[in-house]
């Protein structure tokens, strides 16, 4: 399989072998052509997820409408979710806290959508899933980030009509997860951003003042550092659970996320849903950005400014990461003071 990408393997969902065994058992019971057709259809879905089957539309629509929700058990909300999908015409739906267990993949069998899911391996709750409209080319990316069983995440690669690739991920981090799990999640996000355009959705259970990007713990500090280093923007500005913004939409390409709306919860879930649009290459909005004018920098002034700092005192104590963060903040402060910036923008392009 090209690029070594494997569809829904291991802890990414149900193993293909297990699927085939179960379907063969079903076929032996019924012995009818109906089961054979189902077997062929599911095999086709696996090939499509791996990039082996061409669909009617090889890329994204001009505007791809997405929907994210924390379900807190999807089993008793499938009918309501189906109605939401039909009414709003979503191209991709990301779900956290599916609460599905092994062998319950049929719960999310919504006509016209490919289901990719990762259930919690031990204990109750958790789990993530992606529903992708079957006219969109999607490739499961198991090579990104984290294959550990206790990290609940899924990543897929999709293409726009010009062949430009974007990575889309859904993540659930339980509030009971330890610091190590959080670091692995951050590592995965950084790996995705290094590969190009990345859109990340999920319930991270992080307590951050997003209006000022103020963290309330060491993991939150690490997460904010990741956002800054990867040039990510966090788009949700309204509370998604009580008065907290726990459910996040992140993207590292300016102008890619549009028309974001925080909606009422699905059923009895205690999290609000989030709807938004991804702008594809065919209808690109090139936003104004700031660019450093390196040839006009006052480097003598910058060196003098940095020389005034008592580095021994400022970097005394703390971990290597904390010292590095302090150095970056002081350096960036001097950079903003002595190196001018210019605005660089573009025009809307409709092809």
Please describe what this structure looks like.
With 351 residues, this protein is an alpha+beta fold. The protein has two domains: 55-284, Endonuclease/exonuclease/phosphatase (Deoxyribonuclease I, Chain A), CATH 3.60.10; 289-350, no CATH class. It has eight helices and 18 strands. It has helices spanning 16-30, 33-49, 78-88, 179-194, 218-229, 299-307, 311-314, 320-338; strands spanning 63-70, 92-96, 113-118, 128-133, 138-140, 152-159, 165-172, 197-203, 208-209, 214-215, 233-234, 247-251, 257-263, 273-279, 283-284, 289-292, 341-344, 349-350. β9 (208-209) and β10 form a beta hairpin. The two termini are 33 Å apart. 32% of the residues are buried.
| Low-pLDDT sequence parts | 1-61, 282-287, 346-351
Strand order of the largest sheet: 3-4-2-1-14-13
Largest sheet: 6 strands, mixed
- What's the count of strands? 18
CATH superfamily placement of the largest domain? Endonuclease/exonuclease/phosphatase
User: What is the CATH domain class of the largest domain?
Assistant: Alpha Beta
Distance from N terminus to C terminus (CA atoms, Å) equals: 33 Å
What is the number of helices? 8
Task: Using the CA coordinates, give the radius of gyration.
Answer: 23 Å
